[in-house]
Amino acid sequence: MSLQHLRCPGPVSRRSFLEMGSLALGGICLSDLLRHRALAAEAQAKPQAATPDTSVILIWLQGGPSHIDMYDMKPEAPDTIRSPFEQIPTNVPGLDICEHMPGQARIADKFTLIRSITHSWNGHQDGAQRFLTGYNPPRPAMNENVYPSMGAVVAKYREKMDFGVPNYVSSYNGGIQYAGSAYLGKAANPFVVSGDPNADNFQVKNISPPPELAESLDNRAALLKGLDNFRRELDQSGSMDSLDKFNRQALGLLTSEKVRSAFDISQEPDHIRDMYGRHTWGQRALLARRLVESGCSFVSMVMQRSGVGKSSNWDDHAVNWHIFKELELRLPIYDKAVTALIEDIYQRGLDKKVMVVVAGEFGRTPKINFNRGVGRGHYAKAQSVIVSGGGMKMGQVIGSTNDKAEEPKDRPLDPNDLLASIYHYLGIDAHHPYYDHAGRPTRILASGEPISELI
User: Per its UniProt entry, which superkingdom is the organism in (predicted)?
Assistant: First the structure.
């Protein structure tokens, strides 16, 4: 087979990801979640409570966004490297970004751009696990979550804090690789939101009773019996009293106006929905804001399948499609959603309560590749990340790369330094150990320090 017929499969397909089981909450019900949470609580050491009134939104650009075409452009580089896009100034002197992101250029004083994140794992599975968990995969291309992701750590650390809404929520449109809980147990997995928030029929499963029980809300016995439709499992002790306890809690979530309201994006006025953009990415970002505003501690939203062009994610290989044609279509949608999210958080006075992080598993190769199309390959030595809010210092650039955006020139930072900054903001002790499946105490992070320029 000739190379021109090859195609990078990119991030794992929906079917394969389901087989991994990293987002197993898609297959368990609320009573299962609560039961697993209580069982897991007995087996793990208890850390001190984290700072409760803080939240993180992770906008995940699955596939690996091109730093050199977006945030770290090199106009003086050779044409084999240089982006065809122009760079434009932002409202922060000395901070220039791609011309197709004018919204972010206008609000650059409300975010910090980190240009020097670097690691060594160039595969999608490897890079995602390295970035999201803070640990190297034991071997390449593993199809399971070996270490808990930061969202799962937050869920575990805050398991005793009742905010009235799930404390870890993830969008599901193919799934975030390695967003799961590993040895922290199923209770720390994300509450999964599938579907398109921009669709007229968008509905979140597992927060409303089945339609046939809608008229039985006042009949507790009928509703509890109907919870069998959520495929619950019997609790390990077989105690019906215990089972009833968890079902009572699940019933509380099922009938909670706060939960339904948090997920009901239709409550937003038209001008706010328009500000975010009437597309999947915009409404997904808006849903993230609604969730953290309601008390959710960690929300991860995937920006893939934009609905424009041929690309399904940020895996911009020459064998997949034409990177620059796709970015011309994709970046305006991305820019509108991210700009609106950051502006909205600041306008609502949430910038100390909410930290926004925009990242993917790695960057793209500086050298432009040609095959069936035009593209750039996987590249972990350099990538750019945006951080906004969290009461941190904004309107700055941290680190830089060399003249070809190949590697950090100054202030090289590990993904763990970013994770340590996130945990620090949330009041989580990154040195706290949890026990893995073999009974070994494993720290949340084995290395990494909060980024001083942010803190």
Answer: Bacteria
240 pLDDT higher than 70: no
Q: Is residue 278 part of a domain?
A: yes
For the chain, how many residues are written?
455
Q: How many CB atoms lie within 10 A of CB 261?
A: 12
- How does pLDDT run across 189-223, given as a tens digit for each residue? 888 888 889 988 888 876 665 555 445 444 544 55
10 Å CB burial of residue 425 (0-12, 13-18, 19+) is: buried
DSSP state of 413: B
**Residue range of the domain that includes 340:** 57-212+239-454
Task: Provide DSSP, 65-118.
Answer: --HHHHTS--TTS-TTTS-SSPEEE-SSTT-EEETT-HHHHHTGGGEEEEEEE-
CATH number of domain containing 104? 3.40.720
Write the pLDDT tens digit of every residue in 73-101: 999 999 999 999 999 999 999 999 999 99
| Longest CA span, the chain | 72
Does residue 229 belong to any structural domain of this protein?
A: no
- Give one DSSP letter per residue of 176-226, joined into a string: -TT-S-GGG-GGGSPEEEES-TTSTT---TTSS--GGGGGGTT-HHHHHHH
Q: Which two tokens stand for residue 233?
A: 């499992």
pTM of the model: 0.85
Give the total number of structural domains in the chain. Answer: 1
